[in-house]
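The data are quoted verbatim here:
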Amino acid sequence: MNTARTSTRNGGSAPPAPIRIVLVDDHSIMRQGLRAVLEREDDLRVVGEAGSPADAITAVDAGRPHVVLLDLKLASGPQTDGLDVCRRLCAAHPGIGVLVLTTFAEDRLVVESVQAGARGYVVKDVDTTELVRAIRAVSRGESAFDARSASAMVRSLSGGMPDRERLTDRELDVLRLLARGLSNRAIGAELFISETTVKFHVGNLMRKLMVSRRAEAVYAATKLGLL
C-alpha cells in the first residue's frame, strides 16, 4: 500500500504520510539500530543519516524530515557540538522538530538544548515505546522529554522565576506531566484530581509562561529567569 496517497478508490481517506526522520549520531551502529527499531512502525520512515555536523546539514537539506534525532556529541568535535547543529537546523528550517537523543543527562544541557530550538530531550537508555511516543509528539509540534529531562526543566523553572510568577507545587507537578506528553485526563489520573482541575492548572501555567499553546509551556519556561 502506498501511504503517500491521499484518497482511496472507495472514496475514503488514506492513512497520513509517514513521519520523515533524519538520524544524526557519530556511531554508525547506533544509527543502524535506531533505523531498524523505528522502521518497524508503519508511521515512521528514516530518510537520512549523518555522523558529523556538515553531513547533518546536508542530510536534512536533502531529506526534508519532520523530525531530526540528534546526538549532542558528534565525530571529532567538542562535547556539545550538537547544540550548534540544532541552532543551525532550526534557523534554516523553521518548524523542523529536533529531538535530542544523547547519553548526557545534565540539567544544563537539557535547558541549553531547548534554548537552541530542540522540542524534546531523551537519554539513550529510553525504552523504544517512549522514544516512538516522543518522535510522534515532536512531529506534531509538541514538546517531549523523558522523566529525567522533564525533572531538569522543572528544577530550572522553579528556581528561576520571580516570586510573583513562581509556579505552585501542583503547577510544577502538572508541568512535569505535560512535558511527558500526557493528556489532561492522564494527568488527572496520575495526580488524583479531576480533568477540570487539570485544565485550571494548565491555564495558569500558560498565563505565567506567557504562551498560547500548552505544547509551548516547557519550551517557554526556559526563557524566564534563565538567561
Observations:
- The beta strands are 19-24, 44-50, 67-70, 97-102, 120-123, 144-145.
- The chain has a mean pLDDT of 81.
- The chain is about 50% helix and 15% strand.
- The radius of gyration is 18 Å.
